[in-house]
Amino acid sequence: MTAPLLLTDLCAATMSPGGGAYGLVDGAAIAIEGGAIRWVGAACDLPGDLAGWPRRSLDGRLVTPALIDCHTHLVHGGNRAREFEMRLEGAGYEEIARAGGGIVSTVSATRAEDEAGLLRAALGRVDAFIAEGVGTIEIKSGYGLDHDTELRMLRVARRIGEMRPVTVVTSFLGAHAVPGGEDADSYIDETCLPALEAAHAEGLVDAVDGFCEGIAFDTAQIARVFDRARALGLPVKLHAEQLSHIGGTALAARYGALSADHVEYAGDADAAALAQAGTVAVLLPGAFYTLRETQAPPVQAFREAGVAMAVATDLNPGSSPLGSLLLAMNMACTLFRLTPEEALAGTTRHAARALGLADRGEIRAGLRADLAVWDVETPAELAYRIGTNPLYTRIFGGQA
Questions:
Q1: Residue 67: in which H helix or E strand, if any?
Q2: H or E element, residue 34
Q3: What's the first-to-final CA gap in the chain, in angstroms?
Q4: What are 39-43's contacts with CB under 8 Å, separation 24+?
Q5: Which residues are bridge partners to 169 per DSSP?
Q6: Which among 149, 228, 291, 299 counts the fewest CB atoms within 10 Å?
Q7: pLDDT digits (tens), the chain, 400 positions
């Protein structure tokens, strides 16, 4: 149990809706007790029973909710830097695949690593996120594509949450790709679903994800995975409409998914379906940038339909080797034309919703005291600057 603490002399970007831009409160104070926010507001309105609490002045700095990365493939073996070189030298997808590249190379490298090796590499990536003010991170499986490696990845993800001051939310992504030489339907029945059952029985799964795309699984195959998730009482999310439009977003909405991610090829009808289902659209500018795509997500359609938009790194060794959520915010503004306020909401309030977490993402009484303190003058600076990290300190569960 953390001791009561009163943070003073700060500007709070509460990110609570209906409170003006950023939910901004100048001259604010934040009272923290038992790892949670007890009170937040203008210091001049501080309740009398809090006036005697121990104080810590933040000298006018900006405080936001701790950032949340709601889509990563952070646990994996190896890297694909050589493929990056090959693409720049003019190699196409097929040539890279013939050379043993693509997801096959990451699957091979991940299968070859034991838990200790995967954990060691992953901790370095997590530490970089923590240093940027991240308090919650989602981690997927999906680079094993066999029973043992999928579970090994999820065990490593759980260990990260035990070894570092960060909340880890896991997603089972057994339906990520079809292993070479296998039939997609047989893989779903014989490997993916049994691995999901085993991972759930071991307490390793918080949500179930899939990749619905022409190069991966169709809607009928993903629906079978979602049906099993539903039977296990697990929420679902989906990589949808990244490279083409085959109905993944509508499928996600039909199952009441927490999120539909990528969604570059989603349309107006998809936006309406997501809004009705309460499903978050997770925008992933790192993959858009790395793959040099030209079809951007329908941001204006999402705005008009009232779809919540989250922003994440999609950190992975192939299509988005992006290890900075601050940079993802800048890219979402520059490439997708989000406003800086939308980008910050996308890495706080909406990112929490994309993970099904109701206890964080805003600075509000009763929520977790996960906070980021920044050396900036305005919240827009967090999305404006490129390649800089203005974090002053991070508070996790009430502890700095």
A1: strand 67-69
A2: none
A3: 13
A4: 39/365, 40/12, 40/14, 40/363, 40/364, 40/365, 43/8, 43/9
A5: 138
A6: 291
A7: 678 999 999 999 999 998 889 999 999 999 999 999 999 999 999 999 999 999 999 999 999 999 999 999 999 999 999 888 988 898 876 677 667 778 889 999 999 999 999 999 999 999 999 999 999 999 999 999 999 999 999 999 999 999 999 999 999 999 999 998 899 999 999 999 999 999 999 999 999 999 999 999 999 999 999 999 999 999 999 999 999 999 999 999 999 999 999 999 999 999 999 999 999 999 999 999 998 999 999 999 999 999 999 999 999 999 999 999 999 999 999 999 999 999 999 999 999 999 999 999 999 999 999 999 999 999 999 999 999 999 999 999 999 8
Q: Distance between CA atoms of 86 and 105, rounded to whole angstroms?
A: 14
Q: 390: closest CA among 374, 379, 370?
A: 374
Task: Reduce the DSSP state of residue 328 to 3 states and report it.
Answer: helix
| Closest C-alpha to 204, from 212, 196, 192 | 196
| Residues 229/208, Cβ–Cβ less than 8 Å | yes
Cα–Cα distance between 197 and 191 in angstroms, integer?
10
Residue 282, phi then psi, degrees to nearest 5: -100, 115
Asked if 264 and 213 touch (Cβ cutoff 8 Å), the reply is: no
Q: DSSP 3-state assignment of 7? A: strand
108's tokens: 């091979």
Q: Which pTM value belongs to this model?
A: 0.97
Query: Which two structure tokens, joined as six digits, stand for 153?
Result: 């990845």
| Dihedral sign for Cα atoms in the order 337, 346, 243, 79 | positive
Distance between CA 149 and CA 115 in Å, rounded?
9
User: Residues with Cβ < 8 Å from 400, sequence gap 6 or more?
Assistant: 393, 394
| Pairing outcome for strands 280-283 and 259-262 | parallel
What is the dihedral angle through the alpha carbons of 261, 265, 268, 273, rounded to the nearest 10 degrees? -40
Any alpha helices (H) in the chain, and if so which ranges?
81-88, 93-98, 103-112, 115-130, 147-163, 184-187, 193-201, 219-231, 248-254, 268-277, 285-290, 299-305, 325-336, 340-346, 349-354, 381-384
Residue 227, token pair as written in the block: 């049906």
Residue tagged 């989906």 (tokens):
238
